[in-house]
Write a structure and sequence with these properties.
Chain B: InterPro entries: Calcineurin-like_PHP, Metallo-depent_PP-like, Metallophosphoesterase_sf, UCP008292. Chain B: This is Metallophosphoesterase. Chain B: Keywords: Hydrolase, Metal-binding. The complex is a heterodimer of chains A (87) and B (247). With 87 residues, chain A is of the alpha+beta class. Chain A is 31% helix and 28% strand. Chain A is built from two helices and four strands, in the order H-E-E-H-E-E. In chain A, strands 1-2-3 form a three-stranded mixed sheet. In chain A, strand 2, helix 2 and strand 3 form a beta-alpha-beta unit. A six-stranded mixed sheet of chain B has the order 5-6-9-10-12-11. In chain B, strands 4-3-2-1-13 form a five-stranded mixed sheet. In chain B, helix 2 runs parallel beside helix 4 and helix 5 runs parallel beside helix 6. Classes of the chains: A alpha+beta (87), B alpha/beta (247). At the A-B interface, helix 2 and strand 4 of A face helix 7 and strand 13 of B. Bound molecules: fe (ii) ion (2 copies). The site of one fe (ii) ion (FE2) has 6 residues of chain B, from helix 3.
């Protein structure tokens, strides 16, 4: 298995695994390590992602570059005026 | 010269993927909703794994907000085959779940009709799955076609001066920009766009495409908004729509 195949296999595991179902985590395998990046919603979801990668046991060190969504309520946003088509 | 009529204020978000680990994250941001909007649409993927306990967290966050809350389910909400139980948790909490149905919401600026259906994969004109070959392929394609029929049905008899299509899957490719083109066929279905155009809707709201963009338009000119939370990065967007079109 080459680096690209391993990365795709890990991304697939993160989508399919019952603990994660994470669609937004990107895996790159380069320079003899696994880099996980992308945003997850909570520390629990970050730990689950790392657990799934480690259990796949590729024997390479894992670099955790995941970012956590803000634990605060998301900010408000303004209004957009919608112009419907002429029917 | 008369003042332009008041707009209907439609708040929308999708893909909040709730679970017990993020309980309490949305509710504070939704407190001002009655001042900002007349209703809230939630475009599916209410839960992360499709579990009832996650739906209960969604209900805690999104019930009794002071405005009607209208949802469709997303693919994540179907994952554990518990979608009927999830619907019950939501409806018991006063949250409307649409699948092939429409609902009319009265607002100070006039009625809003919301036609809702989850939608499905299929792809887009010229790059779509065909109803041909193996039974598995026919099942996939058939479900995509049926999902658009459900949306079409939801618009039938929906009588309101402002009408909105609410789906989880995308009706257009525009809002998928940023997603790899190889997976567009799994993110949406152009027949949903056809249903929206045939109905003469004023606005189409969807989610699902977390790496897409917010704004698009159907071939018939209906504004499309992808409100997946990772796209809008806010608690909700508000779209102001004037009944009867532009003054
Ligand atoms: Fe989603
Ligand atoms: Fe989705």
């Amino acid at each position: 298995m080459n680096d690209v195949q391993l990365a795709r296999r890990l991304e697939r595991a993160l989508i399919d695994d019952e603990r994660t179902h994470e669609m937004g985590v990107r895996i790159v395998v380069a320079g003899g390590r696994i880099v996980a990046s992308g945003e997850v919603a909570s520390e629990e979801r970050r730990q689950a992602v790392l657990a799934v990668i480690c259990e796949a046991d590729p024997g390479l060190p894992v670099s955790d570059q995941l970012t956590l969504a803000s634990p605060d309520a998301p900010p408000p946003s303004g209004h957009e005026r919608i112009i419907p088509p002429e029917h | 010269m008369s003042a332009s009529p008041d707009p209907v204020r439609i708040a929308a978000v999708g893909d909040v993927h709730m679970g017990p680990d993020i309980r309490g994250r949305y509710r504070p941001a939704l407190a001002a909703l009655p001042e900002e909007a007349d209703l809230l649409l939630v475009a599916g993927d209410l839960t992360q794994h499709g579990l009832v306990e996650e739906a209960e967290v969604f209900a805690e966050e999104f019930s009794d907000l002071g405005v009607p809350v209208i949802t469709v389910l997303g693919n994540h909400d179907y994952h554990a085959d518990l979608e009927l139980k999830i619907r019950k948790v939501l409806s018991d909490a006063g949250i409307t779940v649409l699948e092939g149905e429409g609902v009319v919401v009265p607002t100070p600026a006039g009625d809003v009709g919301v036609a809702g259906a989850k939608g499905f994969c299929l792809g887009f004109s010229g790059r779509r799955a065909s109803y041909f070959g193996e039974p598995e392929m026919k099942a996939f394609t058939g479900h995509g076609q049926h999902s658009a029929e459900l949306l079409r049905k939801a618009f039938q008899g929906l009588d309101a001066p402002v009408r909105v299509g609410l789906t989880h899957f995308s009706p257009v490719v525009d809002t998928l920009s940023g997603e790899p083109p190889e997976i567009w066929a799994f993110l949406g279905n152009y027949l949903l766009g056809d249903a929206i155009d045939e109905a003469g809707a004023d606005l189409a709201i969807h989610g699902h495409a977390h790496a897409g963009v917010e704004k698009g338009i159907t071939p018939g000119g209906v504004p499309v908004r992808n409100v997946a939370q990772p796209v809008i990065r806010t608690a909700y967007r508000v779209y102001d729509v004037v009944p009867g079109g532009t003054p």
